[in-house]
Amino acid sequence: MVANDDQPWLPYEEDGHVHLYLKNLLTPDQIGGCVMLLDYPADHITEWHDHSFTHAAFVLDGIFVNEKPV
């Protein structure tokens, strides 16, 4: 189990504005990958992108919409 109550939410900024907040739970130094909590603002839409690695998302509150590009 990883305790995260002591960790602050860190803003993730890009293009001069905050897209989301995150907490790093496990880092590449610890496990060769990363595990993090992400907090997206309501109605946030991320531009379509892909990754060179596998990842998973578990939605704890709200609705996560993932759409392919048109």
Mean pLDDT across residues: 81
How would you spell out the order of helices and strands? EEHE
Q: Give me the count of strands.
A: 3
- Order of strands in the sheet with the most strands? 1-2-3
Care to give the gist of this entry?
With 70 residues, the chain is mainly β. It has one helix at residues 28-31; strands at residues 10-14, 17-26, 35-39. It has a 3-stranded antiparallel sheet with strand order 1-2-3.
Q: Key features?
A:
70 residues; mainly beta; three-stranded antiparallel β-sheet; 3 strands; globular
Describe the 3D structure:
This protein has 70 residues and is mainly beta. The chain is 6% helix and 29% strand. The chain is built from 1 helix and 3 strands, in the order ββαβ. A 3-stranded antiparallel beta sheet has the order 1-2-3.
